[in-house]
Specification:
Layout: E1 5-11, E2 19-25, E3 32-38, H1 47-65, H2 67-81, H3 85-96, H4 103-106, E4 114-121, E5 129-136, E6 140-148, E7 151-158, H5 162-168, E8 191-198, H6 201-209, H7 213-221, E9 223-224, E10 235-237, E11 240-243, E12 249-254, E13 256-258, E14 263-264, E15 277-283, E16 286-294, H8 300-305, E17 307-309, E18 311-312, E19 317-320, E20 324-332, E21 335-348, E22 358-363, E23 369-375, E24 380-386, H9 391-394, E25 399-408, E26 411-412, H10 418-421, E27 427-431, E28 442-448, E29 464-472, E30 475-485, E31 488-489, E32 495-497, E33 503-506, E34 513-516
Parallel strand pairs: 10-33
Antiparallel strand pairs: 1-2, 1-8, 2-3, 3-4, 4-5, 5-6, 6-7, 7-8, 9-14, 10-13, 11-12, 12-19, 13-17, 15-16, 15-20, 16-18, 20-21, 21-22, 23-24, 23-34, 24-28, 25-26, 25-27, 25-29, 29-30, 30-31, 32-33
Helix pairs in contact: 1-2
Length: about 525
């Protein structure tokens, strides 16, 4: 807990201002309130001092240039004397004007802000606070952290005006002025400042002199990847993309993370309810778009669930993308922890009767898998097949038929005639013409694995190693292998793709089992 009193704040950077701040207990919370006062900014001159300064300057000019200087000064004084009040005010305002596009002004520290420091709570227990406090003003935000007895460190980030950011960071901007606090804890786009605070001015200056901004930045942003719950490997869900077939507009509906690191290498708790998570869409080294991403799941609920949902700004809008290879990159601060490739495919139809001359589709690593669900009451096997796998062969057709057949222990499954179950899902006719989105999503196929055509009389009849064949217009196109035991579907392990940064996890959730296609 910080002691009340007047603290001196010594800057690490020589060009940053020092200030004094009176710390007072905040009776409404466990936090503190402080009022800053600059100790480096020059004080405005009084009118008497201004007059004395003018007279001294006039005498110096007359000594130097003689009679001509006296005439020139007389004319200037006469002109100023005859100025009306409005003109004088306009002249003063022009002299005081600070160009908001000048970075020295755009990122200037407001040294008279009233600061409210609120406690930061532990991720493991939201009822207990850490030894540091967060604050936010109209121009900056940051953290006050206890270093030792009587010594505190304030790390702050000053963000520019919306107009400045829009001009200088067009690819980094988030639409809407309400998002003025985008990308927090970012020392590239926001100006990072470090001050050491103490009731003892000498102690504060000594601490500031021992550190550099570069050292503090290295400490602040270095993530301890081993600081996950139960030392589990960090992993992410398969990102869910959507593309408008006609325009190519791509959105990202959601992505989940499991077992995110909780600490930096110095032991500071990472603020996921700020913008520690950075989501970018890249094409090679080119930035296409970025998201504000945050989570409110910072209390004990997040620890219990072990899953972090990422809320994305602008509804997850990525952009109107041209065909090509892209990557979804997720970083904690600027340290990348996940990279997911996807491809935007543009198909030009040569079907002369199709008014949709070209359309867009997305390919992702998940398209190598099909969802398979076994119903152990009706004994149907439902397969949800990724339609995009048919794009190259069927992209310019009017329509096509997709069907499913099975082999049991290497022998054809002959339980039923095709015509008995065509309407039940063995065959699915897909229309391509005039359908810009036909290759998105999954095509459902169903095959009975019971002993009788009638649902309520069926018992399980398909056992052992089973191969499901996906037939395109009667020809084998893809296959799925699985095993069915006496109690139903023998479920293999959840599908994960080992990744150098973090595993990609395809949890079944409510979509059945995900099985590879070959």
């Amino acid at each position: 807990m910080i002691d009340t009193g007047k603290y001196y704040a010594a800057p690490v950077q020589a060009d940053d201002p020092a200030f004094e701040i009176e710390m007072m207990r905040n009776n409404s919370s466990e936090g503190f309130t402080g009022q800053r006062h600059s100790v480096t900014a020059s004080q405005p001159q009084s009118e008497t001092d201004q007059l004395k300064s003018k007279v001294k300057s006039a005498i110096d000019e007359i000594k130097k240039d003689g009679f001509k200087a006296a005439i020139r000064l007389f004319n200037n004084f006469y002109e100023e004397f005859n100025m009306d009040e409005r003109e004088q005010r306009a002249k003063k305002e022009a002299a005081a004007y600070r160009d908001p596009m000048d970075p020295n002004n755009a990122f200037a520290l407001n040294e008279t802000d009233k600061i409210i420091y609120e406690p930061v709570y532990l991720l493991e227990n939201k009822d207990k606070n850490t030894d540091y406090f967060q604050f936010r003003t109209k121009t900056a935000y940051g953290v006050l952290q206890r270093i030792s007895d009587g010594l505190w460190r304030e790390v702050s980030f000053a963000f520019p005006s919306h107009a400045y950011a829009e001009k200088h960071y067009p690819l980094e901007m988030i639409q809407g002025e309400s998002n003025a606090n985008w990308r927090r804890e970012d020392c590239d786009l926001h100006k990072m400042r470090v001050h050491y605070l103490s009731l003892d001015k000498t102690k504060a200056n000594a601490a500031a002199a021992m550190h550099s901004l570069k050292d503090v930045q290295a400490e602040w942003f270095a993530v301890d990847k081993s600081s996950t719950r139960n030392n589990e490997q960090t992993r992410f869900s398969e990102p869910r993309f959507h593309v408008n077939g006609k325009s190519g507009t791509v959105t990202l509906s959601h992505v989940y993370a499991w077992f995110l690191p909780r600490l930096t290498q110095s032991g500071r708790q990472i603020q996921y309810n700020w913008d520690a998570l950075r989501i970018r869409i890249m094409q090679g080294d080119k930035l296409i778009n970025r998201f504000i991403s945050w989570t409110s799941e910072v209390g004990s609920e997040a620890i219990k669930s072990q899953r972090t949902g990422m809320a994305l700004s602008d509804g997850g809008y990525i952009g109107d993308l041209e065909e090509g290879q892209y990557q979804l990159s997720i970083s904690i601060y600027d340290e990348e922890v996940f990279n997911y490739p996807f491809e935007v495919v543009k198909t030009v139809s040569n079907d002369l009767q199709n008014s949709v001359k070209q359309y867009y589709t997305i390919r992702t690593p998940r398209d190598d898998y099909a969802n398979v669900i076994l119903n152990n009451q009706s004994w149907d096997l439902d397969v949800y097949y990724p339609a995009v796998r048919l794009l190259d062969k069927c992209g310019s057709l009017e329509k096509f038929e997709l069907a499913i057949a099975a082999e049991q222990n290497g022998k054809p499954w002959m339980g039923y005639e095709w015509n008995e179950f065509e309407k039940g899902g063995l065959i699915n006719e897909i229309t391509v013409r005039e359908k810009a989105n036909w290759a998105q999503g999954r095509i459902k196929l169903s095959i009975p694995v019971g002993s009788h055509p009638t649902d309520y009389l069926r018992e399980q009849a398909l056992f052992g190693d089973v191969t499901l064949h996906i037939l395109l217009d009667g020809e084998k196109f893809d296959e799925i292998t699985l095993n069915i035991g006496e109690k139903g579907f023998v479920k293999p392990q959840d599908v994960k793709i080992n990744h150098p940064l973090a595993d990609i996890d395809f949890p079944d959730l409510h979509d059945g089992q995900l099985l590879p296609l070959s």
